[in-house]
Amino acid sequence: MSRHLVVVGGGVIGLSIAWQAVQRNFVVTLIDRGRIGAEASWASAGILPYVNPHTAQHPLEKLAAASHELHPRWYLELRTATGIDYEHHVAGTIHFARTRAEKASLIGLEQHHRDEQSPFQTLTMDELGKAIPSMQHLIESHQITYATKLLADAQLRSPRFLAALAAACRQNGVRIVEQVGDVRLTSRNNLIHSAESEAFGSIAGDEFCVASGAWSGELLRPLGLKIDFVPIRGQMVLYQLDRRPFSSVVYEGGNYLVPRTDGTLLVGSTLEDVGFDRSTTPEAINILSRFAGEIVPEIADRTPNRVWAGLRPATFDGFPYIGRVVDFRNLTLAAGHFRAGIHLAPITAVAICQLLEELPFAIDLAPFRATRGRSQISN
Question: Rounded distance, CA 183 to CA 169, Å?
Fold first, then answer.
């Protein structure tokens, strides 16, 4: 008899786990406090930085390398199954510097990629101008001091990725329940028995997975588990152009521009510790808009078509939680991916499913276990 998995959380992590689990003959119910894919996952820019799987040593790099390799396969499978093209492709990322400090940072970035045997190219100013014609005025006025291109970085359209995952889940029989409000997990004898909400009642299951992003800590706390997540707000700006101004993602420091094939241009992003406040602020939007206008002068005096903010789930040590919560025999946790949720979703889903099936997993998950730093847990 198939086991029933209840996934709490309908972002990219929860949807990915549900899609993988239903293909492994689990009966899957996915529930979300709001609309699926409407929080940090939807707000993501969809940038996928390359990590060489042959040289990765850091635990998080190993996870990212494995996930990066899965993304093209998922894209083919999801596009074929659903007809939704979420435009996964490799176009690289271009990083440029205006100050000496920024230049030093880029030289360090290149050295890291050289050590990791990851492909990059130091760009001449002529090459930079050809790649990003709208920056020619900055190049001619000698404001640019350095530029490099990370050749293997990829990107995708996050909202469409989420739509493809949701469609694939439904096609395979996943029951998706949205807008349930606050969820409570009930337990007895170290087992989770049900997920309950005033909006939908009670759903019993054999296995439960919490994948609720920044809200995961609030869901676990009534069980006696103190696993803290810090919501970090990221504000974004969107412009709609007549054509795509360039093909690669463009970075200066922590600010970036993400071009889409239909002329959509995303501008991001902020890092703000403001609790669960998802509002945007004029100050941040103005900074992002000015940055965009410097790189693409045609939008310098234009009002953005859309602005929004998402809450990224950060953890105390920067590592996501992926694994069994040993205090409960049928509870897994997959949350805290911060800015890498879209990137790490495939490998996280595979890891959780391997754990549920008690199968070996190629990457050591000990650094990501829910009980690391036992002071963070209180029973």
Answer: 21
